[in-house]
Every structure is written in C-alpha cells, then in structure tokens.
C-alpha cells in the first residue's frame, strides 16, 4: 500500500513538472516575441509615410497605427508640432494647423479644417458625410460632404460629434459627448444632444496661450 502511495505521488509530481515546464516554455516564447517586436517595430514605416499627398510639418509626433487616406487633389496637410495619438482615421482633403493635440481614435472625414492650437479629446467624430433626402424607395439620396471648420484655440471634449456644415468659432469649447449640428459662436461653451450654448467665456488676450485647457472644463 505504501508503495502504491509513493508511486501515485511520483506520477503526480512528474505531471506537475511537465505542466510547469510547458508554462515556462510559453512564457519564454512570449518574452522572445515581445523582444523581437520591439526590434522590428522601428523598421516598419506607417503606410502614410510613403504617400506624397500626406504633408506633415516639423516637430510632429504621430503614432504608427494612424490611418490617413489621401490622393492628388484630396491632400492631408498637418502643421508643425502636432501630436496625433493612436487609431486615428482621416480622409482628405483635410487640414490640421500648428500646435494641435489630438487624442486617440479620432475619426475625421473629407472637408475638415482644424485650426491652430486645437485640442481634441479621445473618440471625437468629425463627420461631413450626409445625403440628400431621396424618395420613399431610397431615402438616402445623393452623397454630400458639407465642410467642418474648427477655428483656432478650440477644445473639443471626449466623444463629441460634429456634423457637416458646422463652424466651431475661435476659442469655443465643446463638452464631452455633445452632438454639434449647428455653428458654435466664438468663446462659447456648448453641451448636450443637440448641443446648445450653456455659457460664454471671456475672450483671451492675443496671442492665445499654448497651455492645455484648465481641468475644470469638460474632460478631454
């Protein structure tokens, strides 16, 4: 009986050793794969870097998995000292000014113009696509792309959506989650669905400060 117990313990110990060995091997392979990825990543150029219709200024920081779709006559132009975070998707023609900060997952369609010193929070949507109203057999008629214009010094909060045909005036703030379907006055704060003016703020002295907006405003 004792011999059987010893044999059972031995078998159990061997099985445990094999499981531990497998886990160790997997962990080692994962470490090697991560090290290889770090070596290869700097050698892989983002696709947009080979596109002559994407024009990027100096001092920009653009993460590698940003998608930019541009062609002749539908260029994407990015100014100087722009920070553009991961997972953004942009379609030309599109212009971004100097000293802008654009957080992750921007979705910006053709006909969008962003001024200087504009801050965009994560998951902002700038959607110019729309349709004429068709007949009852198909209500989504001919495509149109009315332009979006965001003027200098604006702050667009997280998850905000701005629709085509809208101009966001200089120094305005769009609160997080707002749906903007009409023009925003300069130096106004808008919020809600649809967005409405909730207050006006003092006009800053020229030139506008390059600092991030104060934390008391809408989250970005």
Low-confidence stretches: 207-217
Our Rg estimate from Cα atoms comes to 26 Å
Order of strands across the main sheet: 2-5-8-11-16-19-21-22
N-C termini distance: 70 Å
The number of distinct helices, counting runs of at least 4 residues, comes to 1
Helix and strand pattern? HEEEEEEEEEEEEEEEEEEEEEE
Number of strands: 22
Oligomer: single chain
Q: Give the overall silhouette.
A: elongated
Question: Helix content range of the residues, please?
Answer: 10-25%
Strand content: 25-35%
Give the structural class.
alpha/beta
Plain-language structure description:
By secondary structure, the protein is α/β, with parallel strands linked by helices. The protein is built from one helix and 22 strands. The protein has one helix at residues 2-40; strands spanning 54-56, 61-62, 67-69, 76-78, 83-84, 89-91, 94-96, 101-102, 107-108, 112-114, 119-120, 125-127, 130-133, 140-144, 148-150, 155-156, 161-163, 167-168, 173-174, 179-180, 188-191, 196-200. It has an eight-stranded mixed beta sheet, with no helix packed on it. A six-stranded parallel beta sheet has the order 1-4-7-10-15-18, with no helix packed on it. The protein has a six-stranded parallel beta sheet with strand order 3-6-9-12-17-20, with no helix packed on it. Strand 13 (130-133) and strand 14 (140-144) form a beta hairpin. It is elongated and about 85 Å long. The model is unreliable at 207-217 (pLDDT under 50).
């Amino acid at each position: 009986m004792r011999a059987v117990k010893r044999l059972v313990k031995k078998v159990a110990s061997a099985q445990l050793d094999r499981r531990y060995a497998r886990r160790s091997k997997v962990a080692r392979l994962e470490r090697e794969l991560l090290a290889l990825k770090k070596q290869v990543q700097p050698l892989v150029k983002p696709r947009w870097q080979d596109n002559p219709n994407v024009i990027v200024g100096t001092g920009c920081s653009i993460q590698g998995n940003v998608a930019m779709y541009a062609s002749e006559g539908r260029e994407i132009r990015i100014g100087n000292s722009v920070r553009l975070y991961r997972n953004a998707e942009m379609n030309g023609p599109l212009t971004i000014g100097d000293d802008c900060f654009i957080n992750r997952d921007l979705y910006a369609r053709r006909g969008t113009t962003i001024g200087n010193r504009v801050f965009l929070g994560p998951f902002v949507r700038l959607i110019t696509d729309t349709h004429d109203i068709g007949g009852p057999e198909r209500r989504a008629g001919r495509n149109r792309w009315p332009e979006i214009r965001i003027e200098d010094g604006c702050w667009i909060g997280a998850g905000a959506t701005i629709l085509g045909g809208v101009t966001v005036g200089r120094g305005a703030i769009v609160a997080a989650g707002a749906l903007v379907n009409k023009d925003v006055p300069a130096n106004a704060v808008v919020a809600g669905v649809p967005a409405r003016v909730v207050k006006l703020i003092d006009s800053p002295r020229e030139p506008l400060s390059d600092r991030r907006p104060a934390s008391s405003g809408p989250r970005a």
